[in-house]
């Protein structure tokens, strides 16, 4: 089987695994977390032999509530982490797969929003990057968390069917380096062919976010290009896609500093 097909098969299986995994200490379908060379690293999903290389799948409605899921969760086994907190940053606004064009709509073209919360902590993802929140590492050094994800309509209409894309990175308060960017795709009553196409698009050879010169690493050359485009509408350097190159784009680039994933 082709590597891309194997990844698609693995991802499509995680929806059922997530429900069955509620009975186990490590939840099948969860995003696994480890520390490699003092950097947070995501891998998995748990229960699959194929590493899906930073792309994961959730399904709205899998727990019986429309537009809602608490999957995939995050899971670091006991002993993985020192005392502290792990959190997430949203690297881009919420995007949706456009089957007609075979590409992702820009966040500014998507009316839906994504509410992410855990007890009293909350983040609303709209059309731009946004800070998330962090949660304490367990006393045993593990970190098993399931955030609540709720897809919101535009206030007049229910959320459109389709595949939604959330780009993230994990950070720590303990001095560990931020994880490489990763993506959760959410299936909102989408056509299975569209789900497969959306997943497949994540493995096409495209430059990673922040690698403006395409050399496979986010470094000083990219910083120079971003600064040269400061206060312009340069689409390449406008990493936040808010229409202007500014401090928000600089923060995103610095947060992604280092080799591109994969």
Topology:
Elements: H1 3-20, E1 31-36, E2 39-43, E3 55-59, E4 68-69, E5 74-76, E6 85-90, E7 95-98, E8 103-104, E9 113-118, E10 121-125, E11 130-136, E12 143-145, E13 148-152, E14 162-172, E15 182-188, H2 192-201, E16 217-218, H3 220-228, H4 247-255, E17 258-259
Parallel strand pairs: 1-5, 3-15
Antiparallel strand pairs: 1-2, 4-13, 5-12, 6-11, 6-14, 7-8, 7-14, 9-10, 9-13, 14-15, 16-17
Provide structural commentary:
The chain is an alpha+beta fold and about 260 residues long. It has two domains: about 5-200, no CATH class; about 215-260, Type 1 dockerin domain (Orthogonal Bundle). The chain is about 20% helix and about 30% strand. The strands form four sheets. Strands 3, 6, 7, 8, 11, 14 and 15 form a seven-stranded mixed sheet that branches. The protein has a four-stranded mixed sheet with strand order 2-1-5-12, with no helix packed on it. Strands 4-13-9-10 form a four-stranded antiparallel sheet, with no helix packed on it. The chain is globular.
């Amino acid at each position: 089987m082709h590597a891309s097909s194997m990844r698609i098969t693995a991802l499509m299986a995680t929806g059922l695994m997530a429900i069955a995994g509620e009975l186990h200490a490590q939840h099948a379908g969860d995003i696994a977390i480890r520390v490699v060379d003092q950097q947070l690293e995501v891998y998995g999903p748990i229960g699959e032999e194929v590493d899906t290389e930073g792309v994961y799948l959730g399904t709205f409605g899998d727990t019986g509530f429309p537009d809602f899921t608490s999957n995939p969760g995050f899971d670091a086994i006991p002993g993985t982490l020192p005392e502290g907190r792990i959190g997430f940053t949203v690297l881009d606004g919420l995007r949706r797969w456009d089957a007609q064009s075979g590409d992702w709509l820009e966040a500014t073209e998507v009316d839906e929003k994504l509410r992410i919360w855990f007890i009293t902590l909350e983040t609303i993802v709209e059309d731009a990057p946004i800070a998330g929140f962090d949660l304490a590492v367990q006393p045993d050094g593990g970190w098993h968390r399931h955030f609540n994800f709720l897809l919101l309509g535009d206030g007049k209409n229910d959320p459109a069917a389709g595949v939604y894309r959330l780009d993230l990175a994990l950070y720590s308060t303990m001095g560990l380096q931020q994880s490489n960017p990763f993506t959760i795709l959410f299936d909102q009553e989408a056509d299975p062919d569209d789900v497969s196409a959306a997943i497949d698009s994540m493995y096409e050879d495209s430059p990673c976010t922040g690698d403006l010169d395409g050399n496979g690493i986010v470094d000083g050359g990219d910083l120079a290009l971003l600064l040269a485009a400061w206060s312009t509408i340069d689409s390449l350097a406008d990493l936040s896609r808010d229409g202007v190159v500014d401090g928000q784009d600089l923060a995103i680039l610095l947060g992604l500093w280092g080799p591109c994933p994969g």
